[in-house]
Write a structure and sequence with these properties.
The chain is an alpha+beta fold. The protein has a domain of 66 residues: Nucleotide Exchange Factor Grpe, Chain A, domain 2, CATH 2.30.22. The chain is 58% helix and 17% strand. The strands form two sheets. The protein has a three-stranded antiparallel sheet with strand order 1-4-5. α1 runs antiparallel to α2.
Length: 180
């Protein structure tokens, strides 16, 4: 057998070292690529979780709004019914109980973010009020709300139901001529 020279042995080892270095660089590049993919996946998952939480919060808000909207007529009916209770019956225990039930319902809805829209004496705002009647009068300023026909509500600063109102209007020229 032929013996290798030291130079050949060194050269072979250098070649092997070059191959090993190349494989090491490829492995490092592959590891960096995997790390990048992992970091991207983690970021995508974190974004997904945040988006999912926002969507759930939005769904809950919409569901609450729908339920509260369905309860508003019940609240209106309770209010109307309690207004008709004669003074001589207000001291009866069961009547007081009905008042407590109405107050409890109102408090629960307020805890959920429900608030009444102020109307009487305010300037008409089409985002908050629904003008059911425009009444010509000189007793009030133009577009001042005279009375409330149906109470309006907001849920967390979003109008759930506008207040139905009577609004003052300036008398028309024709109305002035008819009265003279």
């Amino acid at each position: 057998m032929e013996e290798k020279t030291i130079e050949e042995s060194v050269e072979e080892e250098l070649d092997e070292l070059g191959v090993v270095q190349k494989e090491l660089e490829e492995a490092k590049a592959e590891a960096a690529e995997y790390l990048d993919q992992l970091q991207r996946s983690q970021a995508e998952f974190a974004n997904y979780k945040k988006r999912n939480e926002r969507e759930q919060e939005q769904f809950i808000k919409l569901a609450n709004a729908a339920l509260i909207s369905k309860l508003l007529p019940v609240l209106d009916d309770c209010g109307r019914a309690l207004l008709t209770v004669p003074d001589n019956l207000r001291s009866l225990t069961w009547v007081e109980g009905v008042f407590l039930i109405e107050r409890g319902l109102r408090m629960i809805l307020e805890e959920e973010g429900l608030s009444e829209i102020e109307a009487i004496g305010k300037k008409f705002d089409p985002e908050l009020h629904h003008a059911a009647v425009r009444e010509e009068t000189t007793e009030y300023e133009e577009d001042e709300i005279i009375s409330e026909l149906q109470r309006g509500y907001k849920l967390n600063d979003k109008v759930l139901r506008p207040t139905m109102v009577r609004v003052a209007a300036k008398p028309s020229e024709r109305s002035n001529e008819e009265t003279e």
